[in-house]
Amino acid sequence: MTLPSRVSSRSAPSSSPTVSRRRALQGGAAAVALAGVGAGGLAGCTANPATGRQTFMGFQSIDDDVALGGREFPKLVQAFGGAYEDRRVQGYVQDVTRRLVPHTEFPNLPYTVTVLNTPIVNAFALPGGYVGVTRGLMALASNEAELASVIGHEMGHVNARHSAERQGQGLLASLGVLVLGVATGSSEIAQLAGSVAQLYVQSYSRDQEFEADMLGGRYMTRAGYDPEGMVGLLATLREQSQVEAAMKGLPAGAVDEYNMMSTHPRTIDRTRAALQQAAATTPPNPVVGRDPYLQAIDGLVFGDSPDQGIIDGNTFIHPGLRLRFQVPPGYVLRNGQTAVRAQGRDGGVIQFDMAPLKGDVARTLEAMLADANAQGFERLSVNGMPGATAGVMLNTNQGSAQGQVVMVDVGRGRAARFLFAASPNRFGALSRGFRETTYSLMTLSAAEARSIRPRRLDIRRAGRGDTVARLSRGLPYGRYNADWFRLLNDMPPGGEVQAGQVVKVVTT
Question: Where is this region: Disordered (predicted)?
Fold first, then answer.
């Protein structure tokens, strides 16, 4: 969670070029509504050199793509934690990008690939060649070919002009010809509401994903990379989504809304078919690039950055706010741009954020909930800090829920705010855990805040006696540490490390 003052004052982050693993798997209504339709098709249709298809682009040119992407990309970068400020990492990704660019259909676009400072595992493309790859995705990737596959895939979206197709479809929808149904699921992405950038972080169609894989496979193999990098990384992303689902007590097939498997719906079989259609045969002496890639990401921040707050198991610590709290066992914490959320296996939900405080905390809460039919206002003290609480009823997409709002005066005109929610028939059983979370809120001393350090990847050789259990201790996932260690190191379930094996270890 970013400090509110920093969110409002941060200037548009700078961008730098960048680029993205594993050899693990060897119309009649339109004619009435629109003028300019004749035997040749819909006015505004153009043949795309990447796909060979004629598609309505909403009268948007390539120059319009560049202008739109340049205007909206800084908003996207800011919404996902800003640019990751590491010249070595950005420079490495820049070099891979440059290797791919000459093999695209639009090599003169101002390709800008930026590593985003977020642990979310994803990548996005905006029109005109603007691409974001998260450091969370880079941590999972294992070699340069996998990195090239991610950037190549996003370049495929750019060159196929999939975003312009969406623009065209949106224009048609406004004319009453099509109904464009798009939905964001992610609260992070919802922050982009009202911005054109919102459109480009929603999931693509399966046909568009197939085209992007086909084009990305074409680019990376022509650049000399092993196409198995695309399949290997996809396998790892699927495994990661399964581990995330298990952590939340969800079925293995449930894909997290933040995960690349949600915004880029793909299967390994379809990706292989796309590579075959692209004639993406393995080039002579294909580049895999495991050693240079691991050297480039040695020291990469893993998980949350201290600037945004750190999740350590069921504890959230924010050195900038100088606050910490704990959620009950079994809850999975998720750090967002403006709030921290925790989901319990038992259906409970906890949200934490900061709110401005003007005067008395109880009166501020009462004014805030004036239109919410709140009841049961009560003052309280949380570790010496004045607070207030009230009950509310909530309407959610899963029906009504019972909620409790708690505000605590943490000084400097700010209040820490919790929202606890559950179905009405479960709230009573969960209320003890909610109270324990409230009273776990504590302030950090200046020295404690300064002592908070980010977790980082440490590339090393396993020694004699090293085991998965031992090497995974630095990860913040508790009982799932071993699963995450195997994800990071492309190890099968139950696999063990061998002496001398190069591994990614997470340390502080």
Answer: 1-22
